[in-house]
Amino acid sequence: MTASTIDWHQRAGELRLDGRLVVDGRRRAACDGATFDKRSPIDGRVLPGIARGRAADVDLAVRSARQAFEDGRWRFQSPAERKKVLLAFAQRIVACADELALIETLDMGKPIARALDTDLPATARTIAWYAEAVDKLYDEVAPTGPHALALITREPLGVVGAIVPWNYPLLMAAWKLGPALAAGNSVVLKPSERSPFSALRLAELALEAGLPPGVLNVIPGFGDEAGEALAMHDDVDGIGFTGSTRVGRRMFEYAGRSNLKRVYTELGGKSAMLVFDDCADLDRAARAAAAGMFYNQGESCNAPSRLLVQRRIADRFMEALLAHAQHYQPDDPLLPATGMGALVDEAHTCRVLDFIKAGNSEGGHCLTGGRRVREGSGGCYLEPTVFDAVQPAMRIAREEIFGPVVSVLRFDSEAEAVAMANDSPYGLQAGLWSDDVHRAHRVARTLRAGTVHVNQYDEDDITVPFGGVKQSGNGRDKSLHAFDKYTALKTTWLRIDPA
Known about the structure:
Elements: H1 8-14, E1 21-23, E2 26-28, E3 35-39, E4 46-51, H2 55-70, H3 79-95, H4 97-108, H5 112-133, E5 140-142, E6 148-156, E7 159-163, H6 169-182, E8 186-190, H7 197-208, E9 216-218, H8 223-232, E10 238-242, H9 245-257, E11 262-266, E12 272-275, H10 282-294, E13 306-310, H11 311-325, H12 346-361, E14 365-368, E15 372-373, E16 381-382, E17 385-388, H13 395-398, E18 405-411, H14 414-422, E19 429-433, H15 437-446, E20 451-454, H16 483-486, E21 487-495
Parallel strand pairs: 7-8, 7-10, 8-9, 10-11, 12-13, 12-19, 13-18, 17-18, 19-20
Antiparallel strand pairs: 1-2, 3-4, 5-6, 6-21, 14-17, 15-16
């Protein structure tokens, strides 16, 4: 069956969600029995009974992970054996794709078609790719001379705490679980309280695939309870965090106040896309800008939320952009034809509306959108919103909105465009459109961002690293470079006596 032939509303009614923790290979309630409910952003339906993990639950999970690591039930398996289990895990994800996609959509509001055709295949591919990579990594022998043998080996870090956001719950978890588990670590995963169910189901699939109990534990809960307890725990060796810059700062504080654990972060963004007047295909550039901005309801850290357009072609570009924005009118995420779904919850919707209000009051011209729609549904829906005449100092040009709101700023010269693009505390991604190969290379080198897209936006593959500079974080997810976060180098020096 395909997405278009399934009655997703019926499936949603039949779905039985389990919000209990996963600790030491089994489901269990929180230590104090506490639970919390959340509302689906689709229609306000209550998704009940999520275990409210707190410090005691985190401690239980960390102790389970530490025991699993120390007795070697996972890390002492050969790379080939770990590979076999992780490949089976990826196959279980594929086999349960419909269920996982539905959970993802109910939890955070993305269109079911996007969950199925993008998030689920990427999640499975991530786990499978790291499974295939682990038995192809070689250690080193240092060139020390004839009387010594210095071995440089890459070893698992130990117990890893993984804290992931709500916008791509499965994929962000896979970006951390793939390299961390492949390297032989034990993991305590803390999903967002706004989207906890898919991570819990993911842990069950890992156990079904043969991952030993205790190697992957999942603790849902709130950031200031479960998240802080995990980041502060003295028996956690490293934290992989994806989320806001505000909370990312706390991760480093928690490490400093506890055991100086490693902290790697992928944080916010305010990515700039530069469109130069030598770009011949403005319609293609506008289509890519709209897709990059309104995909996933604009709830993407790398969305091109600042469009910098050369003044001479700005009016033509805006005409095309507004036309493409109309293709992202929000609708019921459980309908297969829906292109843009619901924002994650009521509080976040109000936050995005506050930014729209600020954009209007500071002098931006709202050319389309800016309104809440489908209010009778009980869900959280906003129109795709385009602001023109935006100035660099405006809030909508400087702060991460994390919603379907794009700001257009006009420039005259290349130098002005580069200075405007780099005038941001963030540095996650950037893009540029130019048919001049010299300009493309020149500008790409001067943009301060972890990734620069040229004549496309957000093309992607697991083989390339993802991460930012400045306040967009440190370290890299994806590619072989992700192993650097979850492993430690050890030198073993052997003296060789002369004959």
